[in-house]
């Protein structure tokens, strides 16, 4: 899980020979805009980028950087372009492009409800089967709609149980070398073909925990789950309300291997409620429980407790739900860097091509799709589809190759719209870049994917230069200590937005601003802290 202090403001200093002081523009710094002479042209861009990468925040850091002009077809800058580096969520660029290639922009996940037989008086003599294919958008409201459709079909009673069938994917729930300490947090949820999304962001395989202080010191804390479920048990025996103004010591934890969430510590009297997401062990059982409760509310009596199993051949379909098309689903996935969505797509790719939904089948097909699109896969190593593992490797050159190659695909415009936009306040537009590069030429211009792990930070995407050229860039930083070098990445992106081959367009008057403290918790990317 990413750790470290919040990003610091970035100061750019430069010493240039008098012979090249042909113009001036202002580079961005935290203490205000400082006009500093700078030359122009490709050679001068390269000099600027070398200076940025020599910043002390990148001392002892391995960096791969590539800048290419799609318009002119040349390489504007390279630094260790073919060094295989840990990409973090840059991986999602690869996975999403492969999914569009293999599955198509119109691909939809389906969830169905079926039974062996239904009697004339509306009774299912045996079990009712809930079968999933990986839909990550199934909220409690979607299960309620399925339940209402079952009731509308004439079913009033199920003698058996709700059986959750998640066999569309294999039984491997966690990605390669995912850290144990991450596994209770929403970004490392178990991957299943049948799951529950807890919120409008479609965070899957998690339950929301809301904790409210009591009215006076010593009173127990109020705890509720959302969506409501009996699949998860809450223990809050030691959770109490503290005095007004006291420090919160609240802790919400799920022990791995089970579904007991323990709430401990205190919240101050009069304090604001606290909401957290915690992962669920075996999400298919969670889905069955939520659906069974929805059936009861819809007037369908269910005899047995929910279980996991497999729908037998020959069942009769009673209800079906289709997800939004993949082209729309990419928006929350890419804007908010949703790990679960990327892993579901990886298994869906494997299922589509080989008939087996697994990481083992899906990951090689991602590489195959990238080559089919026209991107280089030299040095590529994929062990998951989201970038949560530290075993993935990719070069900046391969990322830049992909960014150029996808422009020739019929789905490119849809795919590009899913990328975060620098400085765009709407979280479903700006996403993980909504608080970055504001009030600079990069705002509303840079469209790029971020990536963050401990010691890993990345930014790769598109920018329009001042002379109208479309540039692609890939920046991957590995092994830094201290603050994440996002200010350096942002300064590079802003410099690219100012690029011109022949003439200057004026001075940049605004300072480079670090992310607000609310989106830079412990140095995390905002998607990890759920602040974007």
Automatic annotation (TrEMBL):
It holds the Pfam family Peptidase_S13. Gene3D superfamilies: D-Ala-D-Ala carboxypeptidase C, peptidase S13, DD-peptidase/beta-lactamase superfamily. It comes from the Bacteria. SUPFAM superfamilies: beta-lactamase/transpeptidase-like (SSF56601). Keywords: Carboxypeptidase, Hydrolase, Protease. GO terms for molecular function: carboxypeptidase activity. Belongs to the peptidase S13 family. This is D-alanyl-D-alanine carboxypeptidase/D-alanyl-D-alanine-endopeptidase. The gene is dacB_2.
């Amino acid at each position: 899980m990413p750790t470290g202090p919040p990003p610091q403001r970035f100061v750019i200093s430069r010493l240039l020979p008098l012979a090249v002081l042909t113009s001036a523009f202002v580079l961005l710094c935290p203490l205000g805009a400082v006009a500093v002479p700078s030359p122009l042209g490709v050679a001068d861009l390269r000099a600027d980028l070398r200076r940025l990468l020599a910043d002390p925040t990148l001392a002892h850091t391995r960096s791969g950087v590539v800048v290419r002009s799609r318009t002119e077809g040349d390489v504007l800058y390279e630094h260790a372009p073919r060094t295989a580096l840990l990409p973090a969520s840059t991986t999602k660029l690869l996975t999403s492009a492969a999914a569009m290639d293999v599955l198509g922009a119109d691909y939809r996940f389906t969830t169905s409800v079926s039974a062996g037989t239904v009697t004339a008086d509306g009774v299912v003599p045996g079990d009712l089967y809930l079968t999933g294919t990986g839909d990550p958008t199934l909220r409690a409201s979607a299960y309620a709609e399925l339940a209402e459709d079952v009731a509308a079909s004439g079913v009033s009673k199920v003698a058996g149980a709700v059986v959750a069938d998640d066999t569309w994917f294999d039984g491997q729930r966690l990605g390669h070398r995912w850290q144990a300490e991450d596994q209770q947090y929403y970004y490392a949820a178990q991957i299943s073909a049948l799951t529950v999304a807890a919120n409008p962001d479609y965070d899957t395989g998690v339950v929301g925990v809301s904790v409210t202080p009591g009215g006076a010191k010593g009173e127990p804390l109020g705890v509720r789950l959302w969506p409501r479920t009996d699949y998860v048990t809450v223990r809050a025996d030691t959770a109490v309300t503290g005095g007004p103004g006291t420090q919160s010591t609240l802790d919400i934890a799920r022990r791995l291997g089970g579904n007991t969430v323990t709430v401990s510590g205190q919240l101050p009297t009069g304090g604001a409620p606290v909401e957290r997401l915690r992962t669920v062990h075996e999400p298919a059982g969670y889905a069955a429980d939520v659906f069974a409760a929805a059936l009861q509310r819809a007037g369908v009596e269910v005899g047995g407790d929910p279980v996991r199993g497999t729908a037998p051949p020959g069942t009769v379909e009673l209800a079906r739900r289709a997800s939004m098309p993949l082209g729309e689903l990419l928006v929350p996935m890419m804007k908010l860097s949703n790990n679960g969505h990327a892993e579901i797509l990886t298994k869906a790719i494997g299922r589509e091509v080989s008939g087996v939904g697994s990481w083992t089948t899906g990951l090689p097909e991602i590489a195959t799709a990238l080559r089919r699109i026209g991107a280089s896969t030299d040095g590529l190593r994929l062990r998951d589809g989201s970038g949560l593992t530290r075993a993935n490797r990719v070069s900046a050159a391969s990322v830049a190759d992909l960014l150029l190659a996808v422009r020739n695909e019929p789905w490119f415009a849809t795919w590009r719209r899913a990328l975060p936009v620098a400085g765009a306040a709407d979280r479903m537009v700006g996403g993980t870049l909504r608080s970055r590069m504001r009030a600079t030429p990069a705002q509303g211009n840079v469209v790029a994917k971020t990536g963050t792990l401990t010691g890993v930070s990345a930014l790769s995407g598109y920018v329009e230069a001042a002379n109208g050229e479309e540039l692609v860039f890939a920046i991957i930083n590995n092994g830094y200590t201290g603050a994440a070098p996002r200010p350096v990445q942002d300064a590079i992106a802003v410099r690219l937005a100012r690029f011109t081959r022949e003439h200057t367009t004026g001075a940049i008057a605004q300072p480079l601003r670090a992310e607000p403290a609310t989106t830079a918790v412990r140095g995390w990317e905002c998607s990890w802290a759920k602040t974007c």
